[in-house]
Amino acid sequence: MDIDKLAIDEQDDESIEYESPLTASQRGLDVSNRSLKKSSLRSRWLVLVLCCILMSANYYAYDIPAALHQQIQTYMPPSPNFETKFNLLYTAYSLPNTILPLFGGNTVDKYGAPKCQTIFAMTVFIGSSLLSIGVTSQSWNLMYLGRFVFGIGAESLGVAQSTVLSEWFEGKEAALAMGIALSVSRLGSIWNNLVSPKVANAKNGGVEAAFWVGALLTSVSVVMGCFIVLVDGRTAKKIEKRRGDSVESLTAALLEGSIVESEFIRTGGCSRSSSASAQEAGRSESVHISEIRKFGQLFWLLSISCVVVYGCVLPFNNVASGILLERNFFTSPSDCQLKYRDECADGYLQNISNPPLDADGSVCTVVPTQSPVLPNSVNFTKSDSNITSAWDKTTYVYPDLQPSNVHCGDDFWYGGCTVTYCTKERSATEKAGKVMSIPYLISSVSSPLLGHMVDKIGRRAVIATIASTILLVVHLSLALLVCSPVGPMIGQGIAYSLYAAVLWPSVPLTVSKHYTGTAFGVITSIQNMGLALFPLVIAAIYSTSGNNYIPNVEIFFASCAAAGVIIGILMIRVDRKTGHRLSAISSRKDGLNDIRHNGDFDPLNDEIDHSPIS
């Protein structure tokens, strides 16, 4: 080897960060290694398809109670506290996720995303099965247990899926893949809103069957997770083998020229890449939870905004079926009573014609959006005849009959006593399910496009404020106006899509890079605290409002949206004072680290912008 040339090279390279020179063989290995990535393999699209199916089933099962609000009320044992019991299903789901997000990411990193994804999918399946068993046995406590277990797996499942996709896709493809996964996943909610009411209303179906369909789909998630583990494991082995073969070939070539020893001596046995890796490892030391005190004002405003804005989106969807039935599709007829108030309205138990009459004795006209009139009371006992053999109970004694007493899955009601009422209720719940799907449909279609738009224009705090304003108009309209629900639901979908497009990408911009993972965990925990509390608040408002949603429950949602507007304005002001980080434009070439502003951009100052909370 030419030692003089080596010495000259050393002098020339003293002023730059050194990386050992590559021979033709080394450069070949470098190119080979770059191509030996999961993100360069066509099988990445198979992984994306499997992830989409997996998460769609999760979304479907999560939203089943919301789609079957009315059916659950008539199916479960009568209770004056039904609304509280129903909303506790969502509180039970959110409770474990007030803590788990702080540790979920570490678990995924420690044991591997594909394996964790399958384990979390199995947890969701177990939870969904327990919930279905609870529904079948009409046990609220077992249903709560099922939702709690479901919640343990579901939120962490989302974390694992994001990690899997980030391993299989890079750069612009990563954003595309996650956008596709989110859009397809939300289709699960849409299918639930359309299918679950039909299954629950079917003659050979029922509420139990609708929940078991969700459990079956979550079992498919487990199968998809196993396939992902299989594909990921085989791919990792192939990549490792190919890299090993390349290294052996390169080693032989290097030994022929006696380069290895000289390079090792000259660089002190350390290349720039290994040194950089060591530095990165030093920067990646674990962050203690107490360090959230270093998060700045902008992060906490974003967290509060997340709670109040999502508080009028997700909890609204939980009870949207009940709201739409009460407001639009199954309203109570006013001042109408059956001619014979203690006789069945219609069916094979009706002895004589029993039309609804108004106060003047004239026949009431029940419009399509109104529910048929029920008897004031019923008193029947099951006999040995074939007619009563399909009844679910032995006696039906209701001196003060309420809509919640009428279980339309029971042939006594659906065939014998209240045929028209049950037929119309089933039709109304299916209509409500279709309208409920509008926000998710808009979100599913628009999420990738809106994410791209936000990257191009920035202005995240402004967009969050606009979304909150739209939600305020939506819920005031539902509370105070007599109008079709389609317009407000379209507004809900647009606002939900806009807000989701700016919220989560804003989190890394409000803290220094070292705290990004912790910041996501904290804001998710705070969000779930709100999602655990709000259903109970809604149930309390419903009960104190005479078991009505309109207008007080909607006023509560409007109040949350108004709080979101105020927080949004505060975020805009704080953002202007701290470097326009939320107004910045993202360059997808380098990800969120390449941030620029249309005007003057003040660089992030950790000491100023991440001061401890006073």
Comma- or semicolon-separated keywords:
single chain, mainly alpha, 22 helices, 6 strands, globular, disordered C terminus
Summarize this structure briefly.
By secondary structure, this protein is mainly α.
Could you explain the architecture of this structure?
- The chain has 614 residues and is mainly alpha-helical.
- The chain is built from 22 helices and six strands.
- It has helices at 3-12, 24-35, 43-62, 64-67, 69-75, 82-94, 101-111, 113-136, 140-168, 172-201, 207-256, 259-267, 272-283, 297-311, 314-329, 411-417, 419-457, 460-480, 486-506, 516-544, 552-577, 606-609; strands at 337-338, 356-357, 378-381, 395-398, 585-587, 591-596.
- It has a two-stranded antiparallel sheet. Strands 3-4 form a two-stranded antiparallel sheet.
- It is globular.
- The termini are far apart.
- The relative contact order is 0.12.
Task: Describe the main β-sheet briefly.
Answer: 2 strands, antiparallel
Specify the structural class.
mainly alpha
Strand order of the largest sheet: 1-2
Give the H and E element order. HHHHHHHHHHHHHHHEEEEHHHHHHEEH
- Secondary structure: helix percent: 55-70%
List low-pLDDT spans: 1-25, 258-284, 588-614
First-to-last CA distance: 65 Å
Number of strands: 6
Radius of gyration from CA coordinates: 30 Å
Instruction: Tell the overall outline.
Output: globular
How much of the sequence lies in strands comes to: under 5%
